[in-house]
Amino acid sequence: MSLTIPVYNQKGEKVEEIELNPEIFEVKFNSDLVHQVIVSYLANQRYPWAHTKTRAEVKGGGKKPWSQKGTGRARHGSIRSPLWVGGGVTFGPRKEKNYEKKIPKKMKRKAIFCLLSQKLRDKEIFLLDKFETFEEKPKTKRMLEILKNIFKEKPKSLLLVLAKNQKNVLLSARNLPKTKIILVDSLNALDLANFKYLLMEKETIPLIEKIFLKK
Length: 215
Fold this sequence. Notes:
By secondary structure, the chain is an alpha/beta fold. It has 7 helices and 6 strands.
């Protein structure tokens, strides 16, 4: 049995059905793999903001606070010792820490296929034949009308995937809440997991095969 999906026009009318590649859209969901890939994406976006200074980096403290002997007090060499308030920090967080996680390309691709397949099973993927009414100028109101025609209401969370860079389409959709627009070559597991619905141009289907389905 062939795997097909309907294609809609901007009025929300079904214009055709196209066949999908089962190697991409009929993959068994692997939750462990998807979790591992998403964690790697999040880790690679992480920046080590937390940073403490050692006693060598804290200003001041060049002079010994008091004599080594004869004062009746404990001996100290610098007021910037970690023992003092305002001194350096021992074993504190440093910005040199690297959170990067490396994940093989095959695993990244498999995670994308798992999520695409699951969204297809959940009927959360919609195909649009093409955007036609944004050639002259961007218009958010018109984009919202198109989405309502296809989804019957504005989807609460939407990932819009374009086959090629279309400036007016990007400008028309960028102000819509919980909506993200990416090009097909930027498709990734993190975005697929973060957004409930996926709206793609019909032209993206062969491009997904060309980009991600490498033998």
